[in-house]
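User: Fold this; tokens only.

Assistant: Input:
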Amino acid sequence: MTELIQNHSNDFADKLALINQRIARACRKSGRESRHITLIAVSKTQPWSKIVAAYQAGQRHFGENYLQDAQPKIVQSSSMGIEWHFIGKIQANKTRAIATHFNWVHTLDRIKIAQRLNDQRPVHLPPLRVFIQVNLSREANKAGIDLIELSDLVTQMQQLPRLQLQGLMCIPMATRKFDTQIKPFQQLQQAQERLQTNYSHLQQLSMGMSADLEAAIVAGATHIRIGTDLFGARN
């Protein structure tokens, strides 16, 4: 097991260095600093040995889509200081476990779920940090609130003290052209700016993955979610 973790660690460190180089270049292009970008390693379906290897390489933020797969990892990592981000679709019957085990939630898109997460967040834990997911392209197969409903949801969430709203999140349609990639990210950034007129604390944008992280960073991303380019193909 130790040898396996070491092999994974060496591989992850190499991939992490390449991602960090891409982040640095994008930050230079946009006049930003790399320290303002949080890299979330999307570890869904990855074995515990790869989590440990990534941790040993210096990674501290991990994203999980599936509660059942994530819970054993979170329990095993309880003394490691890992920040766990829930980045999957939220089912109402899973909110208690999500509110209990995760530090961040990126996929909030309706007040019913917000209320449940708020009410079920244990009182001994700090408020759960959350993003509102926006479905910019109105794709039927994607979660997320419509832009025209965003302001109302933000207003309602001000009454939920166990949630700490950080900002907005999106997953645009995939494309390989930079000029096309950046447009929805700019649209989300503009939506954030409008909200900041009344809610200046909304400073974070969760957007950008392996294929489009450069466009996301240029448009203002603070959190990027990288899976395959760090861990390789899922098992």
